[in-house]
Every structure is written in structure tokens, then in C-alpha cells.
Structures
1.
Amino acid sequence: MQGFTELIEICKITSLPIPLSLVRSSYFPNETELSAIENHVIESKQAISFLEEKLSYIRKFSAFRHSLTAPIRKLPNDVLSKIFLRVCERGVGIGMRNGQI
């Protein structure tokens, strides 16, 4: 009986109009109905794909917006230039010796 309950829940979520009496019967969909179900599945997968692409875009845009508010962006260019010049002069960093890479 667990399988029937799960099927009913799936039908509620997906808005499929399948009455409980039909689920409990030994009814099996004909070719036309199977085709309609397959089309519904294809359309649903396309909608999911579209929404996943939108979500990916929103996440990338959010990361971009977050990077715009990073504290380093608030420093004036002359201060940033001085910092980077000092780092280059000192050879601080991975693989750097005497200003060489």
C-alpha cells in the first residue's frame, strides 16, 4: 500500500488528476495516455533545465556582486599600487626570489 500512497503524493505535487479509485484498480494507460505522460515528463525536464540555468546565472551574478563589495576594492588606486610595488620589490610570494619569478 506504501507505493500507492507515494503515487498519490507524486500526483498531488505534479498536479496530475489521478483519482485514488483509478490507482487502486488494475487500470493501465493506453498508448495515447502514455504518450501524453511522456510529453509531460519531457516538458517538465525542459522546465527544470531552464530553471537550473537561471539558478546558475543568479549564483554567478551574486558572486560578481559580492566581489564588487570586497574591501580591497575600497582602497584608492595609489594605495593599491604602492602595496603591489612593495610586494614585487621584496620578492614576497611563492617562487619569487629577488624580484624574479
2.
Amino acid sequence: MSFRLDNVPVPGGEEGRYEMTVAEYKFSLLTVSDGEGPDDALDNYLKDGGKVFRTIKLPTTEYTNRRSRIEPLSQGGRKQCLSLALQRIMSYLMPRSIFGSYIGFAPDVSHSFDADRNVGDKRSAAVRAFGWHPMRARFAVALPGDKVYFRSLGTGAWESLVLTHQLQRNVNCMQYAPTGDKLAVGCDHGICLWTFVVGANLTAWMQFLPSPDTRTRVVEWSPCGRYIVSCAFDSKSFTVWDVAKGHKGGVPFTMLAVVTRLKWSVNGDSLFVGTRARWFSIFRTIDWTSKTFKNIGVSNACWSLNSQVLLLANSEKPIINVINLSPAVKTLKNRMVIDLERDPKAPMGVGGIGHDIEWSPTSERLAVSFKESNTDLIAVFGTSWGTLPSFQPLGYIRGPPSRFPKGKNMPIHMKFRPNCKGGALLAVCWAEGQISIYPLLFQSTTRVK
């Protein structure tokens, strides 16, 4: 069984007729065009309470005060004064070895904004990593300066807290804990595990989880929030961290090929381990036994809400393999694919080998970016559920135009917000230093079985 991208409208990308996607409404992706007002569909969307988010520019930072200030007792009370004093004392007593637990506080900062300093080319790292808060309308981004910034959708502004540390170098990945009170940041030689302290002013302290490998490639929290799995570039192993045990809680697992991807199932019972070779493994987390699937090269993967369907972006062919792990449909588990081959009737640069795939929290919307450097679009599929899922192409997302003549503003990160009512909310980070938020409004017509 195959699902294709045929006869899907493509938003214009030519000069003078550039169409930028803003939202989904009634199973159609809405766009705005240069020099034109909203059309009837977009007007109806706005009348029904739909929201259009402006393109977000990335922040830059300038330190105004590298030391934390102890507020007068009258302003914050005795508890705040003692807390800030403890922070000051801890900052002088921190150990300097990277081989133990390292705790540090983020300094007070102020910041100005200049998106021009973050302009990249193709898939350059204008944004090193992106992560949604699991409950609040808030996200975190890591920029090339190895600082982590936070933005609230409610206020529409960047927050004052910025996470930075001398051990937080070459950031490549990060993820919030399911409880929202911690943030794991993958960097050189380990993970910076930040814990947020809520008070008069939000602050955070850091514990370092060291790794013998160089640069951390993936960090993934288990759904229960007890474990973190991580792997490094060019490493044939991954590590399972018991967070409560700190730097002593890491258990390594050795594979026969370089590990490239780690994905927990939604129920936490399974862990997908992708490799650079043409095979992958699925571990049962109750006893850490594994099963290997051969003859499939994988660039990325995602699980369904019921943890029984696994989508694999094939690294060699323009398809997404749909692996159904349910015993009820065992004979069909490897026969379904989503065909990403370019539609010959569509403009050049549409379709190809999948680069990144993201399934919405309800498994009703699938976003796919492409590996080819001339493809700056994101395909969006609707998913309906019976015994097996089916996929209907809805259209393409086109982001902000490139600042370079005939350039392509490539999507480098995309994530669905974990908690969203009335549809889904997709964030996309673009190579030239912007973040776009796309509301996908739909009524759930089927339930994941």
C-alpha cells in the first residue's frame, strides 16, 4: 500500500509572487502573498478565531552584569535573600573537573536583537537546537554561541533568563523533561542538565553528566522522566542515564555500527536505535532486550501515539516506511510506504529523500522536510486511523524568503508542541535565522487505535 504526493498545490516561490504559509484551516494550508491582502479562506480563518504568528527573529546577547545581584531584604524577603546568597557561595565553591557532577548558576543578562548576525546558508546551524516546554506555551533555542534562550508565546517576547556555562560548548541537541522542570542540553563531553528554580526571578542550576565521547548528538527523555538516553557523533554506543543517580547513573550499550538516532515510544516500553548502517534495532525497556530490522537505511524516525506504528524516513529512497508492530497486523507490518517521489507535474524542487519527520502528539498530522538542498518546502500529511493508518497529503509549508538571490531558506529544525488543543502547533527553524509558528486547526475525526 502506497500514499503519494500527487496533485498537491505548491505555494509560489518566485520573485513577485512569493507565497508564505501561515496556517492550516479546513484541510487546506493557507498562504499570504507579496502585495496582496488576505483571501477569503484566510479571512474566514481569522473570523473563526484563528491566529497568524509573525516570523520570530533570533536574539543576540550582551552581558551587562556577569555577577548575580543579592537583592535587599525588603524587596525579596528573607527566603529570597538566603537563596541568592547560597547561589553566590555555590558559584565560588564549584569543582572544576569535567569528570564529576558540576553545578552552576546562569548569570543575569540583558539582550538586544539582531537577526542579521545569525544569517546562515543552506542547512547551516543558525539554530543549534530547539525544544518546546511540555506544558507551557514556551520554547527554548540554542544558538551558535552555545547559549540557550527562552521565548513565551503568551507575551511574544524573549525572556530574561539565558543559560550559559563554560562546560556548555558545541551544543547540538536539547530536550525538556516531561515534567518541564529540567532541560537536558547535549554538548561536548556530556550533557548539561539544567534544573529550573521558580521564584521572584526564574533561575536555573546545572549538573554535568560526563561522557567519554566528544560531541553529543542526541538527548532523549523517557516519557516517565526518570531516564535520558544519549549518543555521540561517530560513536558505536549509546548511554542510558538514571537521572536521580547523577553522573554515576550512566549505563552504556554497545552496537555494531555508529548510532545516529534514539527515539522513545510514547508509552516508554520501546526505544528505537538507528544506525549509520542499513539496519536499526528496537529495545524493550523492561529488560533491554532488542530486535534488529535489516535492509532499511534510516535518516529519522517517529512513533505513533499508541506506540504501535513506527515511521522511518528512508535514507536511500524517497519513501517513508510505515512499520506496524501490532501483533494484529503482523503480516502487513512492512508493506506500507509514503511515496515522496517528486510529482512530475509539480515545480522543480518538490519531493525527494526525507530529511526530518515529525508526527503531531495525536498522530493526526505528519510534517516531512527533504534532504535535497534545492527543496525548501515541508510536506504536510493528514493521518486517519482504522486498523492501519492512512495518509492524505494536504500541501506544503513554505517559510520566509531567502535573503540571497536565488537562495533557498532551508528548514533545519521542526517540532510539534506537545500540548495543544484544537489541532496542532508546529514550530520550524529556518537556516537564515528565523522561527515560524504554524497553527494546524482541525477536528479529530478518528482516534488512534
